[in-house]
């Protein structure tokens, strides 16, 4: 026992050390981070996570959103550290007003970790509306200005200025406001107009200041009838005011104008007294506008209509006439500064001498208290127009008070029903072309690459390209409608509408499926059972198409005309064949089965075979097909007639 006790006493110093007491216990790794949720505003670019630790640690970042541009918006962060420290995070401002940026930063120490969730709020949305040059000054003869808009919300435009006749009314954001107006004919003072642009950002004002017109040159102000009766002279100047009936050339200012007394042809107007030639289009004159021109009495033109001609003339002013619905017209402020064109049905004729009646359209009505028979017409001339109840009438209203308009000006009308006789007639000869210049509407240029006069090369896309020829009698129009030819002839060299020196409207580059379209718009309903006759002379070259289908649109279905039997050529149906340069008059008839607002007749290319030798073409025909207007001195131009 004594031996064991001695051994135990000897061992005690080994257990407790040499005078230092027991060893300190080992400290475990630990780490904490603040804040646990890190939320910053949109304009911040840095943030800090405070770390409390007694060991080494590293940082990992994941669940970054949006992920597509994370490398751009999340610039960087502290990757590792030891003991107490911080994680520095850098990022760009959040410019989005909708997206919240998020990320998770994980601080890892040993086998343990702590997560800190980061989020950056979206930017506060601030509506913006800025206008470039909010005030502009223009000369008396300028008619168009534009303003640039910088905006991040939709906007609208309004104005109470009577002399502004067109303007961009709305936009989704950045854009342009285009404003159209008349020349200032006032020689005593300038004028100003204000437009208001409204958006979520508030309103902005646009101001246009237009200078006063120069003094007018002395000229005899006469009616068109007096101008017609005047002798041809290169000395006397006349001032005519009329409504534009037909704009023959917008580029050169050639047109037909009319007033209450008659019509006159006006050729090649300068843009002003000392203005430009060939720049008329920039004045913005449209069919239906009222124009004042100054010029000399030239010769009387021939053709179907013998009209006096004004030469050596220039534009002085015009009044734009806005076409609106009756409902829209009734919402306009009272006054007589702006002219409106209204169309509707006549009823309740209470004064057949002066023209007091009700004009209605789509449930809206206006009381007309007096209407003259055209520009310059005298009161009491309504009876001579022959307007009956139910007529479709178009007029110009120059003044409004409540639901009544006074001093209306007659434009046109169509009484109910269709009378037998010519409905629409075209005339394809030199004399008519000299008058109506359909080479400008059908072709649109002076010469093509092959030297053809008045040729128009188009882009081979489907449609009519906006090219047309109006009838010389009746409300008719001829257009040429093509299929998409891009794959057939990308160069466009074969697809060219041509008007040759013989004034015959022609087409080169036709393909199966293309068609000539004749449209008759009488302004009244065409009742079912109306019988029509259609006559024309189609003349192809040897390499032009030789097979056609003549049809009319009855409701929604194209139907075959009477008198032309449908036949077959190589699997293609046709009812009209033409040999090279054949000039035979074709006459056919049909009767409508449906009530229609307009009549459409088409002559389509029915088969890919040429007129000469029946060669299979397969794509685009290189030869021209044209309408012949005069054969052996007889007028065989296309005619649509009402039989009964």
Our count of domains comes out at: 5
Oligomeric state of this protein: single chain
Our Rg estimate from Cα atoms comes to: 41 Å
Shape: extended
Roughly what is the average pLDDT, rounded to an integer?
A: 83
**How is the main sheet built?**
7 strands, antiparallel
Distance between the termini: 151 Å
The percent of residues in helical segments reads under 10%
Strand and helix map with partners:
Blueprint: H1 2-16, E1 31-34, E2 37-40, E3 46-53, E4 56-65, H2 70-73, E5 74-77, E6 80-82, E7 85-91, E8 101-109, E9 112-120, E10 129-131, E11 135-138, E12 144-151, E13 155-159, E14 164-167, E15 170-171, E16 175-181, E17 191-199, E18 202-210, E19 220-221, H3 224-229, E20 238-249, E21 254-259, E22 262-266, E23 290-300, E24 308-319, E25 321-323, H4 326-331, E26 339-351, E27 356-361, E28 364-372, E29 392-397, E30 400-401, E31 404-414, E32 421-425, H5 430-436, H6 438-442, E33 455-457, E34 468-470, E35 476-481, E36 496-499, E37 505-508, E38 515-520, E39 531-536, E40 538-540, E41 547-554, E42 557-560, E43 567-569, E44 572-574, E45 576-577, E46 586-591, E47 599-605, E48 624-627, E49 630-631, E50 634-635, E51 639-642
Question: Your description of this structure?
Answer:
With 644 residues, this protein is mainly β. The protein folds into 5 domains: 31-120, Immunoglobulin-like, CATH 2.60.40; 129-210, Sandwich (Immunoglobulin-like); 220-319, Bacterial OB-fold (OB fold (Dihydrolipoamide Acetyltransferase, E2P), Beta Barrel), CATH 2.40.50.200; 322-414, Beta Barrel (OB fold (Dihydrolipoamide Acetyltransferase, E2P)); 421-642. It is 7% helix and 45% strand. The protein has 6 helices and 51 strands. The strands form 11 sheets. Strands 34, 35, 38, 41, 42, 45 and 47 form a 7-stranded antiparallel β-sheet that branches. Strands 2-9-8-4-6 form a 5-stranded mixed β-sheet, with no helix packed on it. Strands 11-18-17-13-15 form a 5-stranded mixed β-sheet, with no helix packed on it. A hairpin with a 2-residue loop joins strand 41 (547-554) and strand 42 (557-560).
